[in-house]
Amino acid sequence: MLASGIDIREIQHVCISRTDAIGDVILTIPLAGYLKQLKPDLTITFLCSDYTQDVVRCSTHITEVLTVSRLNDIFRGTLPDAVIHVFPRLDLAKFFFDQKIFYRIGTSHRWFHWIFCNRRVNFSRRNSSLHESELNFHLISPFGLKMPPKEAIKDLYGFSLPSGYFVPHEIEKILQKPYIILHPRSRGSAREWSEENFITLAMLLHGAGYQVLVCGTDKEKQFLQNLPRQEFVIDLMGKLSLKEYIALICGAEGLVAASTGPLHIASMAGIKAAGLYPSLRPMHAGRWGPVGKKACAFFFEKEEGCQKCIKSHTCECINRIEPQNVFEFLVS
Question: What is the pTM assigned to this prediction?
């Protein structure tokens, strides 16, 4: 590893590369906010997947959004002085090496970074007790920069709803009163709350005068079949693009979900984001909880941990989170 540091004052353009899921990307955006805070004239390109680009465009800290499918478009402007590989990928590490980007930063825990990166940071995500948003800040240590306090991270999103992000008119016209979004499924990416708990919460919210919206993919619509009194639940499963969903979230009083992208969108947007988590590492809230001004992670802590749930997709401890407690947070 090259030991010499990088003088941030000499850097004009940084590329942050994170090409995985929505939640992971959102928890990386504060890295851009922190760099921009320290150097306001810094150009920041964010390299992401095609799917997550609509989320990245919601940050005013990002100068340019670049997707993997349009990677060669990076040459339309000036080349970055440095690239930060937050999500390690062999193909991207080689790409930036081939383009002779001067500073190439990555974790030392990937063999290909020993070939293609000239600044390698030694830290482990797997065994760390830090939150994912904190872990990302390790990768700016070659600039001689320290991690900000965790409580400051929620102010580093730079969230602003772009023009062209709006709720479809046919949906907007049926939103007659304050609404709360329930996002009950996670496409298998997280441990999920039971249908019974979501039903109980939906009825509590309805009784308190809120409209209840249930969102998700079209394949997840079967959840609604078990909801009683469906007349008070607005079914939006499979009916929104990501841009439309972001706009809908921005107008909500709150959102309830497991550890999913929409939960982190809600926390980034500054609405009440109620996250439902198991106690099982590394899925627990301490690592993946929502980071936002009005975000809250709910979990049931067991002394023996969550060992019975390790080999099962169902989770006893997450289902012991009381709907009443989530309801009280949402209406407080």
Answer: 0.94
